[in-house]
Design goal:
The structure is a single chain. By secondary structure, the chain is an alpha+beta fold. It is built from 14 helices and twelve strands. It has helices spanning 5-11, 17-27, 35-42, 46-55, 69-83, 89-118, 128-163, 168-172, 186-192, 195-215, 235-250, 277-288, 298-306, 314-323, and strands at residues 2-3, 59-60, 173-183, 219-223, 227-232, 258-270, 273-275, 293-296, 333-337, 341-343, 347-349, 352-356. The strands form three sheets. Strands 3, 4, 5, 6, 7, 8, 9 and 12 form an eight-stranded mixed beta sheet that branches. Strands 1-2 form a two-stranded antiparallel sheet. A two-stranded antiparallel ribbon has the order 10-11. The radius of gyration is 25 Å and the shape is globular.
C-alpha cells in the first residue's frame, strides 16, 4: 500500500529512467509487487502491512507495482517477530517507526550534503544528475557497512546501560541529568544572516555540541537548530558538558552567547527521546539562565553535593576542609543559589548558578 516518495511519484506515471536505475541500484532488486501482492507473499494481512509501511514513513501508492523482494522480506521478518512472541504488534510498529524516522533523516542529510559536495565541481560534460549514479554505486556498500558498524556500537552501549539498571522500572523511568543548550538571540540572527551563513552557524554549533557531549560521556538526544538536548547518567558529567559548551562557544567569535539549563530526576525514555517533568524543568531553566551561564535545579545541586562534586553551602565546604585537616576538599564545581522564582507549569523553583571552582 505504501512506499517512499520517489516510488510514489514513479507509480503515478512520472517515471524517470535515471531515477528508476538509481532506485534499482540502491534497492538491489526490480519492482515486482503491488502492495497487496507483497502482503500476500509475506503472509501478512493488508491491514498489518499498511501499518508497518506507514510507521516506516512510506507514502501511499495505491496498488501500483512498485515493491520488491526486499519489501516482502522486511514484512515477513517483522511479522515473524510478532508471531514468535519476541515483539508485540504495537512494539513492532514502534520499531518500524523509530527506524524509519532515524534513517529518513540520515538519508536526507547524505543526499543534500554529502553527495552535493562530492559532485562539485562537476566533471566536464556531465551534469550532477549524471554523476550521481556512479557515485552511489561506489559509496553504497561502504556507507552500508559503516551504518551497520555504528548501529552495533550504539546498540552495545545502550544494552550496557540497560543491564546496569538497578531494577526493571529503572529501565524505562530512569533518574538522569538532562541538559538544554540554547543559542541566545537566534531569531534575530535568522533575519540578519544569509541562508548559507545561518546554515553554517547551525552546523558548527550542532557539530561542536555533539562532539563535546560524546567526548565527555553524555548522550545527544536531539538537535533543534539553535538548541541541543543531551542527557547523562551522572550529574558530574552533565555539569562538565554544560560548562565545556559555554567555554568553547565563548572562545568562538562567530558564535552568539549560549545559555544552559540542567535538571536531575526521573525521566521517561521513548524511541531515543526523553520526556517528563525533569525535561520540562531543564528547558525552563535554559530560558531564564543568564547569558554564557549554566543554571541547574535543586535536585541537580543536591546530586552534585551527594557525589562530592560540589559543596551546596559554605558550611559543607568548611566541614569538608576540616575533615581533611584544612586541605582543599577537591570539589570540581561551585554552586551559587539564585532567587526563587515561579516557573510556568512547574511552580516555584530555586535555581542554582553552576561554575567551575577556581
Amino acid at each position: 500500500m505504501t512506499v517512499d516518495d520517489a516510488d510514489g511519484a514513479a507509480a503515478e506515471g512520472d517515471d524517470d529512467p535515471l531515477a528508476l536505475r538509481l532506485e534499482q541500484l540502491i534497492l538491489g532488486a526490480e519492482r515486482r509487487y503491488t502492495p497487496f501482492q507483497a502482503a500476500r507473499a509475506a503472509g501478512v494481512s493488508m491491514e498489518l502491512a499498511s501499518r508497518f509501511w506507514r510507521a516506516m514513513g512510506f507514502a501511499d501508492i495505491g496498488q501500483a507495482k512498485a515493491l520488491t523482494e526486499a519489501d516482502v522480506l522486511a514484512l515477513r521478518r517483522l511479522a515473524g517477530l510478532v508471531e514468535a512472541g519476541l515483539l508485540s504488534e504495537p512494539m513492532a510498529v514502534q520499531v518500524a517507526r523509530s527506524t524509519g524516522q532515524t534513517t529518513a533523516r540520515l538519508a536526507d542529510w547524505q543526499i543534500d550534503s554529502f553527495l552535493e559536495g562530492l559532485t562539485e565541481p562537476q566533471e566536464p560534460g556531465m551534469t550532477r544528475t549524471e554523476m550521481t549514479y556512479p557515485l552511489i554505486e561506489l559509496l553504497l556498500p561502504e556507507l552500508e557497512e559503516f551504518l551497520v558498524y555504528v548501529w552495533r556500537r550504539q546498540l552495545a552501549a545502550a544494552t550496557g546501560r540497560v543491564v546496569q539498571a538497578q531494577d526493571d522500572a529503572e529501565m524505562v523511568d530512569r533518574r538522569l541529568a538532562v541538559g538544554f543548550a540554547d543559542l541566545v538571540g537566534f531569531t534575530r540572527l535568522t533575519r540578519r544572516l544569509e541562508e548559507e551563513e545561518l546554515g553554517e552557524l547551525v552546523e558548527a554549533f550542532e557539530t561542536t555540541a555533539a562532539d563535546l557531549v560524546a567526548a565527555h560521556g553524555g548522550r545527544l538526544i536531539k538537535t533543534l537548530g539553535d538548541e541541543v538536548l543531551y542527557s547523562a547518567d551522572d550529574a558530574g558529567i552533565a555539569a562538565e558538558i554544560g560548562l565545556r559548551l559555554i567555554e568553547t562557544m565563548t572562545h568562538d567569535e562567530t558564535m552568539p552567547e549560549l545559555r544552559v539549563g540542567i535538571a536531575f530526576g526521573t525521566v521517561t525514555t521513548r524511541m531515543g527521546d526523553v520526556f517528563g517533568t525533569t525535561v520540562n524543568l531543564a528547558s525552563r531553566l535554559t530560558s531564564i539562565a543568564p547569558k554564557d551561564a549554566v543554571l541547574v535545579d535543586g535536585a541537580f545541586a543536591e546530586e552534585l553535593s551527594r557525589t562530592g562534586e560540589a559543596p551546596i553551602s559554605e558550611a559543607e565546604e568548611a566541614l569538608a576542609a576540616k575533615e581533611r585537616d584544612g586541605a582543599d576538599p577537591g570539589y570540581r564545581f561551585a554552586l551559587q543559589p539564585m532567587w526563587q522564582r515561579p516557573v510556568r507549569g512547574l511552580g516555584v523553583v530555586e535555581p542554582w548558578l553552576l561554575s567551575r571552582r577556581g
